[in-house]
Specification:
InterPro entries: GntR_C, TF_FadR/GntR_C, Tscrpt_reg_HTH_GntR, WH-like_DNA-bd_sf, WH_DNA-bd_sf. One of its GO terms (molecular function) is DNA-binding transcription factor activity. Keywords: DNA-binding, Transcription, Transcription regulation. This is GntR family transcriptional regulator. The protein is built from nine helices and three strands; from the N terminus they run H-E-H-H-E-E-H-H-H-H-H-H. By secondary structure, the protein is mainly alpha-helical. It folds into two domains: about 10-70, Orthogonal Bundle (Arc Repressor Mutant, subunit A); about 75-219, GntR ligand-binding domain-like (Four Helix Bundle (Hemerythrin (Met), subunit A), Up-down Bundle). A three-stranded antiparallel beta sheet has the order 1-3-2. The longest helix has 25 residues, at about 75-100.
């Protein structure tokens, strides 16, 4: 595998390993050995070590003394804690868009994402669906103009993707519910209805949490 700019080598390695964890190719509790990754990807051990630190910061692995790096367990407590936090960040971003959009064209990126989500649902493409779910938040970043919020969301993105991927992989039919909630969210943003935005996004976060917890019981 060949890695190129613009991302740093460590970031590219971290992204590669994160994708394997998110898709379940690297299982909870599985050890990630620096030497094996170094040889498999033909990169330096220092870059791999830095990549593992990035993954630890993003809650996908734990690095323990004398035990090395292991893929973290996805527990019910972690899922509930993550969903609670992400719910409030969704609402912050949704409110920012509602307050600051000026002309209908400002909402164009969200409508484009909606069309891509529909296409992914029709193809039953879980990976694309999950990725575009997060692209909704990224499209909201310019409206929020909050670098700390953006950094926090980006660091939690892999952990949330892992949870969502598990839920959708177990119950693909539920993708339609996400589409319905997203349509309701767009209506609320267009109307600048902040209470409705909170209500829709709270339901979205709770439904997401329920799906992941249900999937955990049969994973």
């Amino acid at each position: 595998m060949t890695f190129k700019a613009p991302d740093s080598l460590a970031e590219q390695i971290a992204h590669h390993l994160a994708e394997r964890i998110i898709r379940g190719e690297l299982k909870p509790g599985e050890r990630i050995q620096e030497q094996k990754v170094t040889l498999a990807l033909n990169v330096s051990r220092g870059s791999v070590r830095e990549a593992l630190l990035i993954l630890e910061r993003r809650h996908l692995i734990a690095i323990l003394p004398r035990r090395g790096a292991h893929v973290t367990e996805l527990t019910a407590h972690k899922v509930q804690s993550l969903c609670t936090l992400m719910s409030e960040m969704y609402i912050l971003l949704g409110n920012a868009v509602a307050r600051r959009w000026a002309v209908p064209a400002d909402l164009g990126p969200f409508l484009q994402i909606q069309q891509r989500l529909i296409a992914s649902y029709e193809r039953q493409d879980i990976s694309a669906f999950v990725e575009d779910s997060f692209n909704v938040m990224r499209a909201a970043y310019p409206f929020a103009d909050n670098p700390y919020l953006q950094e926090t969301v980006e660091n939690l993105h892999p952990a949330m993707s892992r949870a969502y991927y598990l839920a959708l992989d177990q119950r693909k039919a539920e993708m339609s519910e996400y589409l319905e909630l997203f349509a309701q969210l767009l209506e609320a943003v267009l109307a600048r209805d902040l209470p409705q935005i909170r209500e829709v996004l709270s339901r979205y976060a709770q439904r997401s949490c329920d799906l992941v917890l249900s999937a955990l019981t049969v994973a």
